[in-house]
Amino acid sequence: MMRRSAGIVAASIAVCAAGAYGQVITFNGPMPWVTQRNDSITVRAQIDTAQLKKKKEITLAVDLVNERLQKKMLAKKTFDVNDYTGEFAFGPVKQNLVGGRSYIRIDWSIPGTTTSKGVISPIGIVALDKLPQPETIAVPHAKEDADAAAVVSSVKEADYKKAGMATLAFAWNKAAFYIILVKQQAPGSVRFAFDGKNGKNAFLSFADRVVMYRPDKDSLTGIHFSPVMMGDTVVYNEKPWPNEFTKSVSGDRIVIRVPWYDTGIIPFEERKMGLGIMTFDAKGQQTAAFPAKADFFLPGTWCDLLLAK
User: Fold this and answer.
1) What is the pLDDT of residues 100-123, one digit of tens each?
2) Does 113 lie in the same domain as 222?
3) Handedness of CA 223, 224, 229, 233 (dihedral sign)
4) Does residue 72 lie within any of the structural domains?
């Protein structure tokens, strides 16, 4: 199981404070789109102290921006600059889970100037050791040549979960992952977002694949999302996901077959992977989820799937 490391990413990428030449400050961490594993904010930078004509200082402000673009200042501090490299620590900001369409933003400026300033964002926080353990769904093993009826029969009544109006269960074998839905005609969609690395990240990434089923239209599509910043807003652009999954019917059950090669996941017994289960209304607003507090755009809130023997 791989988890995205803020430290490794921060060390390999730099955000320049100005143009490619003559920049006053180059930031090495934290970096945009990074998921921090704790709530302590430390800014790491390289500084051309010769260009600090007046005070040898840097002012940093840490803000929490929610999905309604409301900004709450978590910390602000002016630090003395004594060397060409520096670590500026704020300590805990008391935010254990930030992500999806909300994010941490760091504003920086050089006191006494009007042009030496900038923003580092979005930054997410998923402090795994401070959050409840994710709920785990044990997925029963279906026979390798199972048809829709056999897949349904491999699942017990106790295996079914609820997400709003949707009632669902899962099964697997070496060829495919199966989603079993009780028939309904509600408008909107049921979405299943796969995180094969189970990274519990703060932002939905392009690598996270989504199966979307529309009950009222009986339609099945595959999508994934490309996250970008537009001004102060985190936007997830929807992209088509080419796939070969199929849909069958067995009694009052819809069985969606998702070949493993489409997901990029290699299945084996006792493997864990992340899964987001959400329902959306006809206007595209999330209405329910499993677990109940899961956010479609924040994989850190999703449940775990355990491929049972």
Assistant:
1) 999 999 999 988 887 789 999 999
2) no
3) positive
4) yes
